[in-house]
Amino acid sequence: MIIKKSNRLVLGNWKMHGSILENTILLSKLRNVDHSLHCDFGILAPFPYLSQVLTILHGTKICWGAQNISMYNFGAYTGEVSAAMLKEFGCSLVLVGHSERRILYKETNLDIAGKASAALSLDITPVVCFGETLDEYNSKKTFSVIESQVSSILELGGKSVSRMIFSYEPVWAIGSGSAASPEYAQDIHAFIRGMLHQVGADSIRILYGGSVKASNAASFFVMPDIDGALVGNASLVTDDFLGITKL
Ligand code: 13P
What we know:
The chain has a single domain (9-245), classed as Aldolase class I (TIM Barrel, Alpha-Beta Barrel), CATH 3.20.20. By secondary structure, the protein is an alpha/beta fold. Helix 1 packs parallel to helix 2, helix 5 (109-121) packs parallel to helix 7 (142-154) and helix 7 packs parallel to helix 9 (182-198). It has eleven helices and eight strands. Bound molecules: 1,3-dihydroxyacetonephosphate. InterPro entries: Aldolase_TIM, TIM_sf, TrioseP_Isoase_bac/euk, Triosephosphate_isomerase.
């Protein structure tokens, strides 16, 4: 699927949720939508369900991907999943550097850059996530944290970065039910956009994530530098998710 900046993108991150039965119901509803009424959208599923996603969504305009990727191509890396494996299951996207992986699994900026590179090597679009924790927010370190996270990805060069999607997700807004204000998110997105300009990757999409729902998504989408949303909880309920993609 060709992703153009002019089209809004909404991605559902299922995290560690789902079952074969629940997914069948959700995916079957998604595959039947009238795409002329929705923006570009896709889902990021747990590894074991990628085969099911491929079977149900194959031939539709919906894109899908995984929530993690190995930075290595193959070898003795127990528990890891390579870019080539994701490719075999039709993944066109992969999440990289989600805060839950940075914090719970201690992924570093260097790991994240390695994973983004591995994805690009097989034409899988990395959706690279950035965001400050509550402590960093409270101690007014947001811009310096974002700057260091984004800089390490920009080191891969403008040509590579132009093939990515970025997502700003303030950690304190994730799963809290209470999103950042659209104005606050816009300020951070504009800051990231300025950094992207320095490497000539001006036009990539920057999504906002953190308690996005159908009731607040439109207020983000009107912001000039917010090109869509990365949705957690609301992506697990078909009508809630489609309520966001239909705006
Ligand atoms: P919520 O939408 O549940 O806050 O999750 C956001 C997120 O982490 C998406 O990657």
